[in-house]
Amino acid sequence: VVTGLEMFHKTLDLGEAGDNVGVLLRGIDRDQVVRGQVLAAPGSIQTHKEFKGQVYILKKEEGGRHTPFFSDYRPQFYFHTTDITGEIELPEGTEMVMPGDNTEFTVKLIKPAAIEKGTKFTIREGGRTVGAGQVTEILD
Protein backbone atom coordinates (compact mmCIF):
# COMPACT_ATOMS: atom_id res chain seq x y z
CA VAL A 1 0.00 0.00 0.00
CA VAL A 2 1.35 3.44 -0.96
CA THR A 3 1.18 5.82 2.01
CA GLY A 4 2.95 8.83 0.49
CA LEU A 5 4.78 10.34 -2.49
CA GLU A 6 7.73 12.72 -2.65
CA MET A 7 9.56 14.52 -5.43
CA PHE A 8 12.78 16.40 -4.64
CA HIS A 9 11.99 16.13 -0.88
CA LYS A 10 8.53 17.70 -1.27
CA THR A 11 5.35 15.80 -0.47
CA LEU A 12 2.99 15.21 -3.39
CA ASP A 13 -0.71 14.39 -3.52
CA LEU A 14 -0.40 12.89 -6.98
CA GLY A 15 2.22 11.23 -9.19
CA GLU A 16 1.72 10.71 -12.92
CA ALA A 17 3.20 8.36 -15.48
CA GLY A 18 6.74 9.49 -16.24
CA ASP A 19 7.32 11.22 -12.88
CA ASN A 20 10.37 10.19 -10.88
CA VAL A 21 9.05 10.02 -7.33
CA GLY A 22 9.95 8.59 -3.96
CA VAL A 23 7.23 6.22 -2.75
CA LEU A 24 6.50 5.43 0.88
CA LEU A 25 5.22 1.85 1.08
CA ARG A 26 3.51 0.03 3.93
CA GLY A 27 3.63 -3.74 4.33
CA ILE A 28 6.86 -4.32 2.40
CA ASP A 29 10.47 -4.51 3.58
CA ARG A 30 13.09 -2.18 2.11
CA ASP A 31 15.17 -5.13 0.85
CA GLN A 32 12.21 -6.34 -1.27
CA VAL A 33 12.38 -3.23 -3.47
CA VAL A 34 15.16 -2.59 -5.98
CA ARG A 35 15.79 0.02 -8.65
CA GLY A 36 14.11 -0.83 -11.92
CA GLN A 37 11.02 -2.48 -10.48
CA VAL A 38 7.65 -1.27 -11.70
CA LEU A 39 4.93 0.04 -9.42
CA ALA A 40 1.47 -0.66 -10.86
CA ALA A 41 -2.06 -1.59 -9.91
CA PRO A 42 -2.43 -5.36 -9.46
CA GLY A 43 -3.12 -7.09 -12.77
CA SER A 44 -2.53 -3.96 -14.87
CA ILE A 45 0.75 -5.11 -16.45
CA GLN A 46 2.50 -8.37 -17.26
CA THR A 47 6.14 -9.35 -17.39
CA HIS A 48 7.72 -11.05 -20.39
CA LYS A 49 11.02 -12.70 -21.27
CA GLU A 50 10.89 -12.97 -25.06
CA PHE A 51 10.14 -10.37 -27.71
CA LYS A 52 10.93 -9.17 -31.22
CA GLY A 53 12.48 -5.75 -31.59
CA GLN A 54 13.21 -3.29 -34.40
CA VAL A 55 16.74 -2.02 -33.73
CA TYR A 56 19.39 0.39 -34.98
CA ILE A 57 22.99 -0.62 -34.19
CA LEU A 58 25.30 2.37 -33.76
CA LYS A 59 28.34 2.77 -36.02
CA LYS A 60 31.86 3.09 -34.63
CA GLU A 61 31.75 6.85 -35.38
CA GLU A 62 28.58 7.15 -33.26
CA GLY A 63 30.26 5.47 -30.29
CA GLY A 64 28.94 2.00 -31.09
CA ARG A 65 30.51 -1.33 -31.94
CA HIS A 66 33.54 -1.69 -34.20
CA THR A 67 32.65 -5.23 -35.30
CA PRO A 68 29.54 -7.19 -36.31
CA PHE A 69 27.68 -9.53 -33.98
CA PHE A 70 25.99 -12.87 -34.53
CA SER A 71 23.17 -14.92 -32.98
CA ASP A 72 23.76 -15.74 -29.29
CA TYR A 73 25.25 -12.27 -28.63
CA ARG A 74 24.37 -11.38 -24.99
CA PRO A 75 24.40 -7.61 -24.29
CA GLN A 76 22.49 -5.66 -21.62
CA PHE A 77 19.02 -4.37 -22.47
CA TYR A 78 17.85 -1.22 -20.68
CA PHE A 79 14.10 -0.66 -20.28
CA HIS A 80 13.35 2.59 -18.42
CA THR A 81 15.53 2.18 -15.29
CA THR A 82 16.18 -1.56 -15.32
CA ASP A 83 18.87 -3.52 -17.13
CA ILE A 84 18.68 -7.20 -18.01
CA THR A 85 20.97 -9.47 -20.01
CA GLY A 86 19.33 -10.84 -23.14
CA GLU A 87 20.36 -13.27 -25.84
CA ILE A 88 19.84 -12.17 -29.42
CA GLU A 89 18.59 -14.57 -32.08
CA LEU A 90 18.93 -13.24 -35.62
CA PRO A 91 16.21 -14.02 -38.19
CA GLU A 92 16.67 -16.94 -40.54
CA GLY A 93 18.88 -15.90 -43.44
CA THR A 94 20.70 -13.20 -41.45
CA GLU A 95 24.22 -14.30 -40.58
CA MET A 96 25.40 -11.14 -38.81
CA VAL A 97 24.47 -7.56 -37.93
CA MET A 98 26.93 -4.80 -38.85
CA PRO A 99 27.35 -1.46 -37.07
CA GLY A 100 24.99 1.00 -38.80
CA ASP A 101 22.38 -1.67 -39.60
CA ASN A 102 18.65 -1.34 -39.00
CA THR A 103 17.31 -4.81 -38.29
CA GLU A 104 14.77 -6.88 -36.42
CA PHE A 105 15.65 -9.77 -34.13
CA THR A 106 14.34 -11.86 -31.25
CA VAL A 107 15.55 -11.32 -27.68
CA LYS A 108 15.33 -13.83 -24.82
CA LEU A 109 15.85 -12.06 -21.49
CA ILE A 110 17.38 -13.96 -18.55
CA LYS A 111 14.60 -12.70 -16.27
CA PRO A 112 11.14 -11.23 -16.90
CA ALA A 113 10.65 -7.49 -17.46
CA ALA A 114 7.58 -5.24 -17.51
CA ILE A 115 7.52 -4.63 -21.26
CA GLU A 116 4.82 -4.32 -23.89
CA LYS A 117 4.60 -3.66 -27.61
CA GLY A 118 6.09 -0.20 -28.22
CA THR A 119 8.45 -0.21 -25.21
CA LYS A 120 11.72 1.50 -26.16
CA PHE A 121 15.08 0.07 -25.07
CA THR A 122 18.80 0.63 -25.37
CA ILE A 123 21.45 -2.02 -25.89
CA ARG A 124 24.68 -1.59 -23.96
CA GLU A 125 27.96 -3.46 -23.90
CA GLY A 126 31.07 -2.72 -21.86
CA GLY A 127 29.68 0.56 -20.50
CA ARG A 128 28.70 2.05 -23.86
CA THR A 129 25.49 2.22 -25.85
CA VAL A 130 25.68 0.07 -28.98
CA GLY A 131 22.08 0.15 -30.16
CA ALA A 132 18.53 1.36 -29.60
CA GLY A 133 15.20 -0.13 -30.47
CA GLN A 134 11.56 -0.73 -29.79
CA VAL A 135 9.58 -3.86 -28.91
CA THR A 136 7.48 -4.83 -31.95
CA GLU A 137 5.97 -8.10 -30.70
CA ILE A 138 5.72 -9.99 -27.41
CA LEU A 139 6.46 -13.69 -27.91
CA ASP A 140 5.70 -15.26 -24.51
TrEMBL record:
| Swiss-Prot/TrEMBL keywords | Elongation factor, GTP-binding, Nucleotide-binding, Protein biosynthesis
The record ties this protein, via CDD domains, to: EFTU_III (cd03707)
State which residue ranges cross the membrane: none
Checking Pfam families in the record gives: GTP_EFTU_D2, GTP_EFTU_D3
- GO MF annotation list: GTP binding; translation elongation factor activity
Q: Where is the Translation elongation factor EFTu/EF1A C-terminal domain?
A: 44-138
This protein's GO cellular component annotations are:
cytosol
Instruction: Tell me the domain of life.
Output: Bacteria
Q: Where is the Translation elongation factor EFTu-like domain?
A: 2-40
Q: List the PANTHER family hit by this protein, alphabetically.
A: ELONGATION FACTOR TU, MITOCHONDRIAL, ELONGATION FACTOR TU-RELATED
Q: Could you tell me what this protein is called?
A: Elongation factor Tu
| Native species | Lactobacillus crispatus
Q: Which gene encodes it?
A: tuf
